[in-house]
Amino acid sequence: DVEGEDNTPVFISSKLKDYLCCGRPILAITVKNSPSYNLVNGLSTVKCCENKPSEIVSAIKSVLDIDFREEDYKERLVIIKQFNPTFLAKLITDEFK
C-alpha cells in the first residue's frame, strides 16, 4: 500500500483497510505517525516503511524472510472490527446519547 505524500496525512488508506482482510503480508509505504502508520505499526504481519527505495527494498526483503501462518493474520481482527459498519453505527449512536 502506497500513501500519497501529503504534507500532513490525515486519512487512513482505504486500500490498506481492504488489505487487512486478506491473509497476506502487507507492506505499508507511509510516513511515520500518519494515521495508517499508527493503525498498523507493531503488527507482525504488516511492515511499514517510508517511500524511499532503500527502505522499500529492505522492507520487502524482511517480509519475504518470514514464513507467515494463517493464524498470524488473526492479529488484525481487532482492527478489522473497528471498520465494521455495525460497530461504527453503535459508536455513533452511543456518542449521540
How is this structure best described in words?
The termini are far apart. The longest helix has 12 residues. With 97 residues, this protein is mainly alpha-helical. The protein has a two-stranded parallel ribbon with strand order 1-2.
**Uncertain segments:** none
Overall residue-averaged pLDDT value: 91
Helix content: 40-55%
Number of strands: 2
Dominant shape? flat
Largest pleated sheet: 2 strands, parallel
The order of strands across the largest sheet is 1-2
Structural class computed from helices and strand pairing: mainly alpha
Summed up, the helix count is: 5
Q: Note the beta-strand portion.
A: 5-15%
Distance between the termini: 37 Å
Rounded to the nearest angstrom, the radius of gyration is: 15 Å
How is the secondary structure organized here?
Blueprint: H1 14-19, E1 26-29, H2 35-40, E2 46-49, H3 53-64, H4 77-82, H5 85-96
Parallel strand pairs: 1-2
Task: Write a short abstract of this structure.
With 97 residues, the protein is mostly helical.
